[in-house]
Amino acid sequence: MSVRKCLFPAAGYGTRFLPATKAMPKEMLPIVNTPLIQYGVDEALAAGMNNIAIVTGRGKRALADHFDISYELEHQIRGSSKEASLAGIRRLMENCVFSFTRQMEMKGLGHAILTGETLIGNEPFGVLLADDLCVGKEHDVMTQLVHVYERFGCSVVAVEEVPREETYKYGVIVADEIESGLYEVRDMVEKPKVEEAPSNMAIIGRYLLTPDIFDIIRETPPGLNGEIQITDALKTQASRGRVLALKFSGRRFDCGSVDGFVEATNYFYQRMKERG
Prior knowledge:
Layout: E1 5-9, E2 30-31, E3 34-35, H1 36-46, E4 51-56, H2 61-66, H3 71-77, H4 87-95, E5 97-102, H5 109-115, H6 117-120, E6 125-128, E7 132-136, H7 141-152, E8 155-161, E9 171-179, E10 182-190, E11 201-209, H8 213-218, H9 230-240, E12 243-247, E13 250-254, H10 258-275
């Protein structure tokens, strides 16, 4: 089955960027002149996912407004040079279908994904965390995951090697390499203590999941911090069948942190200047 849908969990508070995120969704923070969420939707569409499902929360109305027509603004800039600035978002609006649902309580990424079940249904789907901004080499990261799914028909997560002292920030995998850069997952640990991390292979914010994950999440008890962790659900899925991990080709910016956000801004600004 082809992968048509991509889920964006976007209900978090973005507390690391207060006060900027007090009234603005962190997913709307701009890297140069484009919000994080738009980069993510671009990546999903490039992977063939034109059905965009967004899990929002209170105070996130700007996400829906961004992917809608602004009649007053467009009337104001019609015929001017500024009209070209909307070409990218218009292309997404013309080629994607957007749907939204609300996560009433913040109970972890696993719970956010389960909240999106009503928008996904019984088919494979991508999950993209917009504050992980990725730049692929030949293909975007989500496209790379789709290619693996098309070969193996199972859930796939994107991973990268991180400094061991930073493993406490991530879900970390234990896996066997089955071909260059592709691993079969045997175990996963969510945000382990540095001294207990089983490896330095960390899951980043790109997943391609088969729909049986929803039933697995439903039976998954709360884990770290009392939250329902997608890592725990994927560990169960791996024990019952198969989960693969792809060491993706490209670069990731952790835009959930100030350092990563500034690094991404500098990178994209320089790229924009080089392209003229």
